[in-house]
């Protein structure tokens, strides 16, 4: 099976005693997914993650806090080919929440546990489950 590499980011915010994740709503799956995309030639994984976050949300002044980890899952490319995709995910922040025009589908804030239940891919749900403590602890440190 052909391989592919993607990178993306998650922004976590805390309101009251609840944590929220900025995620993409995939209308084709009627569920949630990560803000991510393919690494382009000549681009580092980190540069790709920031570019994808900007393209998909319109957010500016995005910075990486740290790498959360990676996951591997099957994915169907635009040409219909199934690939084994490695997805590198980063915890990010943006001081500028003036969302610009975006080319992607809807994105929004989803409560952490609801997000786990609504992820379109089981591997992504498991990734959120596995990294919940680390990501929420980081959010506590930022607020």
From TrEMBL:
Residues 1-132 form the Nudix hydrolase domain. Keywords: Hydrolase. GO terms for biological process: AMP biosynthetic process; ATP biosynthetic process. One of its GO terms (molecular function) is bis(5'-nucleosyl)-tetraphosphatase (asymmetrical) activity. InterPro entries: NUDIX_hydrolase-like_dom_sf (IPR015797), NUDIX_hydrolase_dom (IPR000086), Nudix_hydrolase_domain (IPR051325). This is Nudix hydrolase domain-containing protein.
């Amino acid at each position: 099976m052909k391989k592919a590499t993607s990178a993306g980011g998650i922004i976590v915010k805390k309101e009251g005693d609840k944590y929220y994740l900025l995620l993409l709503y995939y209308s084709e799956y009627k569920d949630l997914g990560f803000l991510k995309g393919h690494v382009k030639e000549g681009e580092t994984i980190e540069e790709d993650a920031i570019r994808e976050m900007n393209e998909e949300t319109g957010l500016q002044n995005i910075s990486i806090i740290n790498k959360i980890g990676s996951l591997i899952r099957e994915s169907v490319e635009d040409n219909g080919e199934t690939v084994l995709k490695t997805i590198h995910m980063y915890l990010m922040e943006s001081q500028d929440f003036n969302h610009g025009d975006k080319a992607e589908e809807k994105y929004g804030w989803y409560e952490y546990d609801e997000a786990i239940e609504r992820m379109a891919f089981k591997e992504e749900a498991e990734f959120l489950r596995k990294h919940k403590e680390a990501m929420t602890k980081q959010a506590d440190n930022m607020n």
